[in-house]
């Protein structure tokens, strides 16, 4: 349900994405509210080049839309929320320029507004990339909820941008004001980073915001040992692909099959694309899709979907995205097709999977994880 976000810039109807009928969480937090009050009281915004980083669901972009800001995010869902929230408030889509996390604004930045992301590596990457667009008189304001603001966020700003001054906390939110120190010589941007699965394979590329970017996730490692081996499958989907490690192995085991890599993170899809190309070249059998679960896929178009689902969306923990993935997988599988899922034991995915598919077989289990296979009737 849309809720009203009332700030000095106006009163806006905002919803989160993906949309849920009985959503309990707001599409903004007290840090958005604090930041917008600060801007109204202290900044002249007209004619300024404003860049917003990591706006969760468009609260900042919508509230500042009259100043034509640029909003940079790694999340397709955040961008979609911004588009929907602009439309819901009758604001033309072109009032906000949406850029993905690997793109840069084309002109110097007067005001940089940063929501501190969950993954600090993303912030580190962003500061490296945006520093050349900052000037000594650019204003830089970072915002976050106190409980989600690691000390390293400060250190990163000081190391890569310049001196910082914290605000007082308000409603459990805090602002950090930073200014550019032109004398700092930042080290080389460490992203993307690479690790090897085996000595004879090309290294795996991991952009800064990719899940388990430093080494193979232990769940993914277990899933790799229990991938489907039905010879008849033609169309595979690696759903929530991250760096693509699961889909790459499917492509290797099934050389004649098509594999679609899907993720809502732009950096995940950029990593999976590079990883596929370094192994298989520009083979047309791979498709790379940035989007929400399987929204763009036709019903009954896949033989096998393999998934290591997420258990949080930004700072919110829960299985709602996993549940959407299972529902959509059920719709996108052909009759006789298979969904193979790994989950932490305590998540009890088999209960929801049984409801959807009627049956659900346990393929493997260890102390931490269970792997299920569900056949589409
Ligand atoms: C647990 S990670 C698994 C990554 C990779 N498959 C692996 O096993 O290492 C879950 C992935 O789901 C992605 N994800 C989260 N929400 C999504 C959504 N709504 N649609 C598509 N992918 C999503 C995350 O970005 C993340 O890459």
Walk me through this protein's architecture.
28% of the residues lie in helices and 26% in strands. It has helices spanning 30-42, 59-63, 76-88, 120-130, 151-160, 218-224, 245-253, 266-280, 320-332, 349-357, and strands at residues 3-7, 10-14, 50-53, 70-73, 97-100, 111-115, 139-145, 164-166, 173-178, 193-195, 204-206, 235-239, 258-263, 286-290, 302-307, 312-313, 316-317, 333-344, 361-365, 369-375. The longest helix has 15 residues, at 266-280. The radius of gyration is 22 Å and the shape is globular. It is α/β, with parallel strands linked by helices. It has a seven-stranded mixed β-sheet with strand order 5-4-3-6-7-9-8, sandwiched between helices. A seven-stranded mixed β-sheet has the order 14-13-12-15-18-20-19, with helices on both faces. Bound molecules: S-adenosylmethionine. The site of S-adenosylmethionine (SAM) has 20 residues, from helix 7 and strand 13. One of its GO terms (molecular function) is methyltransferase activity. Residues 204-372 form the Methyltransferase small domain. This is Ribosomal RNA large subunit methyltransferase G.
